[in-house]
Description:
Blueprint: E1 10-19, E2 22-32, E3 37-41, H1 48-55, E4 63-68, E5 71-72, H2 78-83, E6 86-89, H3 101-105, H4 120-134, H5 149-162, E7 167-171, H6 179-194, E8 198-202, H7 206-212, E9 215-220, E10 223-229, H8 235-243, E11 261-270, E12 274-282, E13 286-291, H9 297-305, E14 312-317, E15 320-321, H10 327-332, E16 335-338, H11 342-345, H12 353-358, H13 362-365, E17 366-367, E18 370-371, H14 373-386, H15 403-415, E19 421-425, H16 433-448, E20 452-456, H17 460-466, E21 469-474, E22 477-483, H18 489-497, H19 499-504
Parallel strand pairs: 3-8, 3-9, 6-7, 7-8, 13-20, 13-21, 16-19, 19-20
Antiparallel strand pairs: 1-2, 1-4, 4-5, 9-10, 11-12, 11-14, 14-15, 17-18, 21-22
Helix pairs in contact: 14-15
The chain binds adenosine-5'-triphosphate and magnesium ion.
Amino acid sequence: xxxxxxxxxxxxxxxxxxxxxxxxxxxxxxxxxxxxxxxxxxxxxxxxxxxxxxxxxxxxxxxxxxxxxxxxxxxxxxxxxxxxxxxxxxxxxxxxxxxxxxxxxxxxxxxxxxxxxxxxxxxxxxxxxxxxxxxxxxxxxxxxxxxxxxxxxxxxxxxxxxxxxxxxxxxxxxxxxxxxxxxxxxxxxxxxxxxxxxxxxxxxxxxxxxxxxxxxxxxxxxxxxxxxxxxxxxxxxxxxxxxxxxxxxxxxxxxxxxxxxxxxxxxxxxxxxxxxxxxxxxxxxxxxxxxxxxxxxxxxxxxxxxxxxxxxxxxxxxxxxxxxxxxxxxxxxxxxxxxxxxxxxxxxxxxxxxxxxxxxxxxxxxxxxxxxxxxxxxxxxxxxxxxxxxxxxxxxxxxxxxxxxxxxxxxxxxxxxxxxxxxxxxxxxxxxxxxxxxxxxxxxxxxxxxxxxxxxxxxxxxxxxxxxxxxxxxxxxxxxxxxxxxxxxxxxxxxxxxxxxxxxx
Length: 505
Ligand SMILES: Nc1ncnc2c1ncn2[C@@H]1O[C@H](COP(=O)(O)OP(=O)(O)OP(=O)(O)O)[C@@H](O)[C@H]1O
Ligand SMILES: [Mg+2]
């Protein structure tokens, strides 16, 4: 952004949005200029996604001013905001799986040729031209089904370009991407900025905000706090703006007594997915399973838990062999599992926060098949407090929580079972910095209490900060193991990327 004095492309002032008694947005204010990438930062539940939905015409603001190039606007529908040049990319893209890539880009406005027939060639050529411009090789004729999240997002961006969007809003686009996918997305974002678009970017990762963005606006409790130029500020300054205090320790790691093996995995195989996986996790130990997205880490975790099938190998929990394919038996044996895809695997969206938290405890809370409702509420309240779950009432459905708070409910639900072995898959994805430190402190404390923890994480600082031992996976095999003292970013990255070399050394 060369000249902050010029008229903003978009200006939102004092926007208010309530849902019944809940004030999701008390003072939503932001200016977006052409040619800038503007970060929106704030804790879970600060109102970022609500502000985005107001810009997108998905939510109607109760009050406040909204102008585009100085002209007041009001959007009744998403189509109105599109027509005004605003495109939004949500964390979970919404493509139609049975349509081709090109059809998804042009859906609802397919170019028509003679006799009103859809002109597939023209559509495909348009799509190819956009992908070429973006420098990403995606086949416009393939079905959307099976595309990676990263590719789906690029397709949403291609759609925005084809709509000649002047404003592109990305709500946590990087949460599920691997390192090189993030690089690719950033390259596309920068080139759009350089062509004069205004971009808004939401992320909980400070390093992303600082490498990509020109300015940052911070929100707290639904209110505008401040806007700063990135070159003139620091991550800790932004964190202070977000939470109103300093965060002293992001990775609190306590000394835990490492005891007897809790989980022993021997020679686990599943054709085409992973091979010859053997490792052990002891009481009081945090073992990290590191590697790139797609290396097979989540698949191993799901197999250990008995959710996915295996071809051969054994899983032993506290000295007892687990039967494959029986996750309920694993849970009864003391295993807890916080999955990666929490929306699909972790929560029942239409049930309340309270019910979701207590879901895994139903056997324990029931007598003669009747749930002790008071107990259920107590347990939910206790864990809600520990994890600072922000909801107006525990009786509200989890669907109304912000993304990060939904993730906290999944964590709460498993911590409440008091597991002996806890498997956490990307435990702090989408969780704000303050709560991140809180989750890390909880994991550390669990280890001190003798729980064995297997932590899958793509974030190297988290792996290095929390793990007693690091296992690295690459292409379905464990390629290296480092004790805490020997784990360095270089060693882990090498083992995660260069399988052949790592195997030979
Ligand atoms: N449809 C709704 N009904 C009731 N409350 C809602 C609804 N949508 C959002 N809220 C509440 O508004 C607040 C702001 O939510 P929002 O999703 O905007 O937060 P966010 O800043 O995007 O957080 P995160 O970083 O976790 O994604 C939260 O307390 C949330 O529970
Ligand atoms: Mg959000």
